[in-house]
Design goal:
Layout: E1 7-11, H1 18-28, E2 32-35, E3 38-39, E4 54-55, H2 58-66, E5 70-76, E6 80-85, H3 86-94, E7 98-102, H4 105-114, E8 119-124, H5 128-138, H6 143-157, E9 165-168, H7 172-182
Parallel strand pairs: 1-7, 1-8, 2-7, 3-4, 8-9
Antiparallel strand pairs: 3-6, 5-6
């Protein structure tokens, strides 16, 4: 890679471990700036507003859409909306920070058109069976929601070729080191 990207988009199918990988990077690589997405869904147990997501009302989300404040936004799994505020990303990039956006496939496609210099990383499971096990093991969705997410995952997996590179999430430490390296940072340095 010639010049390290200022913004890296991390996307992949549901339950592949995007949030787990992001939390690992937050802990071990504080030099990476995370763009915290806004969402209309309620927080899950242990999630912190402003750290995991910005939890906002549907009316607030509508206002941000009307003001063209999002770099990307989407309705995910047919239920809740998620979005990345453009000002947050622009400010971090202008400050020379390496920014990581953890978003879904729809959002990644929007970012590609609005932030052409970004690097796109697809996080893949070792296998589809592994993905099914991870989703069931989370215990955060009922059977109907799990089936909806698996249908979405099949579509998301088919889009892998749209990304610059694929990282298989078979080991969190290894996947984090590979992602950090692709962001142009030294994966052996915890700062």
């Amino acid at each position: 890679m010639s010049e390290a990207p200022q913004a890296t988009v991390l996307a992949g199918p549901t339950s592949v471990g995007k949030s787990t990988l992001s939390k690992h990077i937050r802990t071990h690589y504080p030099q990476v700036h995370f763009s915290v997405s806004a969402t209309t869904r309620p927080p899950r147990a242990g999630e912190v507003d402003g750290e995991d997501y910005r939890f906002i009302s549907p009316a607030e989300f509508d206002e941000l859409i009307a003001a063209d404040s999002f770099l990307e936004w989407a309705t995910v799994h047919g239920r809740h909306r998620y979005g990345t505020l453009q000002s947050t990303v622009e400010q971090a990039v202008a400050a020379g920070k390496r920014v990581l956006l953890e978003i879904d496939l729809q959002g990644a496609r929007q970012v590609r058109s609005r932030l052409p210099g970004a690097h796109f990383v697809f996080l893949a499971p070792p296998s589809f069976d592994d993905l099914v096990s991870r989703l069931a093991g989370r215990g955060t969705e009922d059977e109907e929601e799990r089936q909806r997410r698996l249908e979405t995952a099949r579509i998301e997996l088919a889009a892998e070729s749209e990304f610059d590179v694929t990282i298989v999430n078979d080991d969190i430490d290894r996947a984090a080191r590979e992602l950090i390296s692709r962001m142009g940072l030294d994966p052996e340095i915890d700062v």
